[in-house]
């Protein structure tokens, strides 16, 4: 289960590539945090793939809770 509702970056080139072009679902993801910090977070997946960092964080959290 995701930690936060999916969001992606509506920003452009100056953003980290790992933050842009993916969507985020974990509040602890530093790339997602960067997107939010800059105010570029947009609700939804944007048709992007899940951020790898978010994927790893989610797996970690699920392993802990089971
Ligand atoms: Zn992420």
Task: Describe the protein's architecture and organization.
A four-stranded mixed sheet has the order 3-1-2-4. It has helices at about 30-35, 50-65, and strands at about 5-10, 20-25, 40-45, 50. The chain has one domain (about 5-65). It is about 35% helix and about 15% strand. The protein contains two helices and four strands, in the order ββαββα. The two termini are about 10 Å apart. With about 70 residues, it is of the alpha+beta class.
Features:
66 residues; 4 strands; 17% strand; four-stranded mixed β-sheet; single chain; binds zinc ion; 2 helices; alpha+beta
Gyration radius, in Å: 11 Å
Major sheet attributes: 4 strands, mixed
What is the residue-mean pLDDT, rounded to a whole number? 85
Number of domains: 1
**Ligands, ions, cofactors:** zinc ion
Number of strand segments: 4
What overall geometry do the principal axes of the alpha carbons give? elongated
Strand order across the biggest sheet?
3-1-2-4
List the helices and strands and how they pair.
Elements: E1 7-9, E2 22-24, H1 30-37, E3 41-43, E4 49-50, H2 52-65
Bound molecules: zinc ion (ZN).
Zinc ion (ZN) binds next to helix 1 and helix 2.
Summarize the structure.
The chain is α+β, with helices and mostly antiparallel strands and 66 residues long. The chain has two helices and four strands. The two termini are 12 Å apart.
